[in-house]
């Protein structure tokens, strides 16, 4: 993956890489076939700067996916999955994840090599999600016989669908409340 993974960067180089990755997300979300030159222009850097940091377009996309997956992992961490009460953790994590997924949709949608950093982070996030769901199950919020991997998949689907709706609320807390309510109570009448 280029220089970004090999050694720590100076502050200005780190800002440059961050600007490139943010521009790459914007440009590639709009046009997945965009060139390195288009990304460089959007980042306000010379094309040679991108090539100095990333050996190829694929290396840039891999770095983008890894960066977004790290942001997603931090979003989960910020929800205190191991220490907050399960319902609080689920809500916080969901709101945080919605923000990251909304801002980094292209990068998080890139198909990854199973051995990549991004894929490893995604697997770890799935394991941590099941752990939070297990805590919720132990607290009586989820049926004791529920298949938690299935619940995780439904949860992921609810998050994904909430990001695609044009008429859905955009406030992450409102969406998180809706997702958690639907996950835990379904769509039947609440009695």
From TrEMBL:
Alphabetized InterPro entries for the sequence: Homeodomain-like_sf, HTH-type_TetR-like_transc_reg, HTH_TetR, Tet_transcr_reg_TetR-rel_C_sf
Gene Ontology molecular function, alphabetical: DNA-binding transcription factor activity; transcription cis-regulatory region binding
Domain HTH tetR-type: 14-72
Keyword RNA-binding attached: no
Alphabetical keyword list: DNA-binding, Transcription, Transcription regulation
Regions recorded as binding DNA: 35-54
Keyword Cell inner membrane recorded: no
Short name of one Pfam family: TetR_N
Signal peptide (from-to): none
Entry superkingdom: Bacteria
SUPFAM superfamilies, per the entry: Homeodomain-like, Tetracyclin repressor-like, C-terminal domain
Classification via PANTHER family: HTH-TYPE TRANSCRIPTIONAL REGULATOR BETI (PTHR30055:SF234), HTH-TYPE TRANSCRIPTIONAL REGULATOR RUTR (PTHR30055)
Protein name, per record: TetR family transcriptional regulator
Provenance organism: Streptomyces termitum
């Amino acid at each position: 993956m280029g220089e970004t993974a090999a050694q720590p960067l100076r502050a200005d180089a780190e800002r440059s890489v961050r600007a490139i990755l943010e521009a790459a997300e914007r440009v590639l979300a709009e046009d997945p076939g965009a060139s390195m030159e288009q990304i460089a222009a959007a980042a306000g850097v010379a094309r040679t700067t991108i090539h100095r940091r990333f050996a190829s377009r694929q290396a840039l996309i891999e770095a983008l996916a890894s960066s977004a997956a790290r942001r997603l992992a931090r979003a989960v961490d910020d929800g205190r999955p191991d220490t907050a009460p399960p319902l609080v953790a689920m809500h916080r994590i969901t709101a945080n994840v919605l923000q990251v997924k909304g801002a980094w949709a292209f990068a998080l949608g890139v198909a990854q090599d199973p051995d990549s950093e991004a894929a490893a982070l995604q697997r770890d996030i799935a394991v941590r999600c099941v752990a939070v769901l297990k805590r919720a199950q132990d607290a009586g919020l989820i049926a004791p016989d529920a298949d938690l991997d299935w619940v995780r998949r439904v949860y992921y689907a609810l998050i994904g669908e909430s990001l695609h709706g044009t008429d859905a609320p955009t406030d992450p807390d409102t969406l998180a409340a809706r997702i958690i309510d639907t996950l835990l109570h379904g769509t039947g009448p609440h009695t």
